[in-house]
Amino acid sequence: GAGVSQSPSNKVTEKGKDVELRCDPISGHTALYWYRQSLGQGLEFLIYFQGNSAPDKSGLPSDRFSAERTGGSVSTLTIQRTQQEDSAVYLCASTIQAGGAYGYTFGSGTRLTVV
Amino acid sequence: AQTVTQSQPEMSVQEAETVTLSCTYDTSESDYYLFWYKQPPSRQMILVIRQEAYKQQNATENRFSVNFQKAAKSFSLKISDSQLGDAAMYFCAYRISGGSNYKLTFGKGTLLTVNP
Asked: Is residue A112 one of the residues assigned to a domain?
């Protein structure tokens, strides 16, 4: 597609429920990142996918968070048993390749509110 | 660990004037990249300008330019002839040039207001 697409745009969920956030990167972009932006904070790295390599999950805050990327394209971030502190904007980004001075192309994010 | 600090939570500028946003970073690496991103209310992060650490010349993109001081680990953004559409959150970001993970490390951002 023309840009990075994320869905849903907004999600309100009850504490304890599971949620799935979707990211559709730009076609041909091999690297995909998930970031979390909490209110008044910068972006916090969550997870990184590069081609068919094992993902770097070092930024995931707890085992309630997981992500997968199917066929080197679409990615899903899953948060199980959501907590109020999970409320944030979740941003996805892709880049044509992992190296070089390439900036990311970001999606518009999913605003998650846990009530 | 690399850190990025933006010491100005908020800044304001009059339309058509010039404003400078500050950013400092901490790293032991010699080769890396620096970026400025703009985030308007739409939430989408937009790349404004990038700088490669091994290049001494400061990057420029139309009304946007940087003052890169490698020894001081400083990377400020200058916006000339400010326009109402420049109003947004601005984030400074850092990334090493090598290694196996090319994640960006972001500062906490500066909210820029442009007054008519």
From this structure: no
